[in-house]
Amino acid sequence: MGNEFLGLISVFVLMACVALGIPIAFSMLLTGFLGYAYFAGFDTAISQLLLVGWHESAENFVMVCIPLYILMGFIVSNSGIAKDLYAAAYKWFGHWKGGLAIATVFACAGFGAITGSSAATASTIGSLAKPQMDRYGYDSKLSTGCLAASGTLGVLIPPSLVFVFYGAMTEESVGQLFMAGVIPGIVTVLVFAGVIYFWCLWNKKLSPTGPTFSWVERWKSVKAVWPILLLFLSVIGGIYAGVFTPTEGAGIGSSMALLLTVLMKRMTKGLFLKALRETVRLTAMILAIVYGGILYSRFLALTGATEYLVNLLLGMEVNKYLLVIALLAIYLILGMILDVYGMLVLTLPIVFPVIIGLGFSGIWFGVICVVMAEVALITPPVGVNVFVISGVAPDVPLEKIFKGISPFFLGELIVIAFCIAFPWMATWLPETMLGR
User: Fold this and answer.
1) Which UniProt keyword terms apply here (predicted)?
2) What digits encode the pLDDT tens for the residues 333-359?
3) Among 134, 225, 319, 435, which one has the highest count of C-beta atoms within 10 angstroms of its own C-beta?
């Protein structure tokens, strides 16, 4: 086990780099490069660094849609449409117990369906919802916890960047992954709404009952959000019907987003340039992680560590569902120290062959991975969404935000349990797609 041991040691070196504060992309690049230099020589390491990673990442056609979906999200995010979306959700659900928080969940679901970004969803809807909830006397534990958790819906409801990333890493159909996220996404929204409703019933001091709006006002508010509905149905409906591929859908979606915002007079040259800058920055971050992940994964495969771990896991005489639960526990731990993309790029080369070898669907496991990514976004100490909401509500201590997240964390575990117990939640829609 000489070479395999070297590969396993590199995992600890990688974790040490991350612990020292080196970004995950550069940690994987450094570890993979040094490993190649030690194992195969400096010249081989240089050739891998300069040629192989860029060649494989650029050759993957799925990667083309990442900047386009990001651009679509930032165009919508910068256009101010989120205000109309939140106003509509508020008029429909504001009169319920905990109604403003429930409206926030639905607004995050709608906005996340377009942006595909949890941080953008949490910050944009948070800046609208937090002042309203403060105005009506909502407990800050409920308001901030709800915002941080609901923001994660952006990575589950399609089109999701994490699904694109997973599809690129595993060569699963991105279109089928998008469809697989629809039912679990709806279930998550309903679970979060239920958590808020029953939490507020149990502790009546958390929130008052909001005002009731007439049916005329409610339906009028829906008219204001037709661009989001049109954009979502066009992109996801077209992919489902087999009219175009997810990559083509990304181009159509970003073009439609720009056209709609221009026609609505919500887009200016300055806002468009801002969206482009944000797109370039986020795309560069994601592709850097992909590049680092390719180099490091190839090094692990070269040492035989990947094959060794896969065979070790497949050879364990335990119930396959217990093994899946154990893998999810590992994801939960990794989510405490790594971001979503780093977590996936580090684990999928090992975990995905195990899942397929156990007879599970790669599409189903993609949904499980994305739900675990949601959990990672609200898990301390990294908890990206918690820090995003802390920026929106600087007067609320981080400890209080994490405390407010606890019921939603349990809600996420319920969704995972549903997905494991009822795999059809993730597989039914992909199986009914046209042109799949």
Assistant:
1) Cell inner membrane, Cell membrane, Membrane, Transmembrane, Transmembrane helix
2) 887 777 778 788 888 888 898 899 888
3) 225
Q: What token pair was written down for 196?
A: 């808020």
> Is residue 9 included in any domain, yes or no?
no
Please identify which residue in the block is written with the tokens 């040490």. Answer: 16
For residue 436, which of 308, 226, 245 has the smallest C-alpha distance?
245
Measured from the Cβ of residue 133, the count of other Cβ atoms closer than 10 Å reads: 24
Q: What are phi and psi of 394, to 5 degrees?
A: -65, -15
The H-or-E segment that residue 427 falls in is helix 424-432
Inter-axis angle of helices 118-135 and 81-93, to 10 degrees?
50
206, 200 contact by CB (below 8 A):
yes
Q: Is 97 helix (H, G, I), strand (E, B) or coil?
A: strand
CA angle, 33 as apex, 300 and 162 as ends, to 5°? 65
Inside any domain, residue 14: no
* Total domains in the fold of the chain: 1
Instruction: List, as one string, the DSSP characters of 171-237.
Output: T--HHHHHHHTHHHHHHHHHHHHHHHHHHHHH-TTS--B-----HHHHHHHHHTTHHHHHHHHHHHH
Summarize pLDDT for 148-198 with one digit per residue, the tens: 898 888 888 888 888 888 988 888 888 899 999 999 999 999 999 999 989
Helix (H) or strand (E) holding 6: helix 2-19
Q: Would you give the DSSP letter of residue 158?
A: S
Q: Which domain range does residue 389 map to?
A: 25-432
Q: How far apart are CA 144 and CA 407, in angstroms?
A: 12
Residues 258 and 235: their CA atoms lie apart, in Å, by 14
Q: C-alpha 30: how far from its chain's center?
A: 26
Q: What is the mean pLDDT of the chain?
A: 83
In a domain? residue 306: yes
pTM listed for this prediction: 0.85
DSSP state letter for 41: -
Q: Is the pLDDT of residue 368 over 70?
A: yes
Task: Enter the tokens of residue 79.
Answer: 């256009």
C-beta separation of 417 from 376 below 8 A: no
Does residue 20 lie within any of the structural domains? Answer: no
